[in-house]
Amino acid sequence: MRQIPVDTSGATVMVAQPPQLKMRDKKTGQIALDGDTGDNLMTVDVLFVMNGNAEVIPVTVAEPGISGELAMGTPVALTGLVARPWENEFNGQKRHGISFRAVAVTSLVKAG
């Protein structure tokens, strides 16, 4: 699968919604797992602000990659952020988009 590295060096990134378990199947409650490690996958909605534009994007990260208190509004660093184009067909309708995955989401607030 194609992966496109995302440069976050000029962006302000903060938590829009705290981490939540990513569901593989919402009907059955099955949790999504990392294919390599078997760790639970989490979704963190972040506000990504760059060049005067702001957008909330959901970022998937394995549970061990989440560190610090990630409450709403907390500034964070996104380590190893990549964008992955996707496409599928559901009920005869083609759908496509971009998903975001990071190695880590780390709070930039100093523990005190």
How would the blueprint of this fold be written?
Elements: E1 4-5, E2 12-21, E3 23-25, E4 30-31, E5 41-50, E6 53-62, E7 66-67, E8 76-79, E9 82-90, E10 93-101, E11 104-107
Parallel strand pairs: 6-10, 7-11
Antiparallel strand pairs: 1-9, 2-5, 3-4, 5-6, 8-11, 9-10
Protein name: Regulatory protein
Organism: Streptomyces amritsarensis
Written account of the structure:
It comes from Streptomyces amritsarensis. This is Regulatory protein. The chain is mainly β and 112 residues long. The chain has one domain (4-107): OB fold (Dihydrolipoamide Acetyltransferase, E2P) (Beta Barrel). Helices cover 0% and strands 58% of the residues. The protein is built from no helices and 11 strands. The strands form 3 sheets. A 6-stranded mixed sheet has the order 1-9-10-6-5-2, with no helix packed on it. A 3-stranded mixed sheet has the order 7-11-8, with no helix packed on it. Strand 9 and strand 10 (93-101) form a beta hairpin. The protein is globular.
Nutshell version of this structure?
0% of the residues lie in helices and 58% in strands.
Helix proportion range: under 10%
- What kind of sheet is the major sheet? 6 strands, mixed
CATH class bucket = Mainly Beta
CATH architecture: Beta Barrel
Poorly predicted runs of 5 or more residues:
none
Structural class: mainly beta
In the CATH scheme, what's the topology name?
A: OB fold (Dihydrolipoamide Acetyltransferase, E2P)
The fraction of residues assigned to DSSP E strands is over 45%
Protein name: Regulatory protein
